[in-house]
């Protein structure tokens, strides 16, 4: 890639849009701890270490 290439990271815009949609539909969770589930085809130990970050 050269200097004429511009990389765009849509993650911030996407997450803000998703937050708005969840709030509008009344299904957002503002406080408290959420439950997370991870599914992997990789090594569970490696995924567990990465998920803690």
Summarize the structure.
The chain is mainly alpha-helical and 53 residues long. It contains 2 helices and no strands.
Uncertain spans, ≥5 residues at pLDDT below 50? none
Helix content: 40-55%
Average predicted confidence as pLDDT? 85
How many domain units? 1
Q: Which class best fits the helix and strand makeup? A: mainly alpha
H/E order of the elements? HH
Shape summary: flat
Estimate the strand proportion.
under 5%
**How many strand units?**
0
How far is it from the N-terminal to the C-terminal residue, by CA?
29 Å
Measured on Cα atoms, how large is the radius of gyration? 17 Å
Tally of helical runs:
2
Strand count, sense and barrel status of the largest sheet are: none
List keywords for this structure.
single chain, mainly alpha, 2 helices, flat
Description of the structure:
This protein has 53 residues and is mainly alpha-helical. It has one domain. Helices cover 42% and strands 0% of the residues. The protein has two helices and no strands. The longest helix has 14 residues, at 11-24. The protein is flat, with a radius of gyration of 17 Å. The mean pLDDT is 85.
């Amino acid at each position: 890639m050269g200097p004429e290439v511009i990389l765009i990271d849509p993650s911030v815009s996407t997450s803000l849009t998703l937050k708005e949609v969840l709030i509008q539909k009344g299904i957002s969770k503002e406080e408290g701890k959420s439950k997370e589930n991870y599914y992997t085809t990789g090594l569970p130990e490696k995924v567990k270490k990465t998920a803690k970050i």
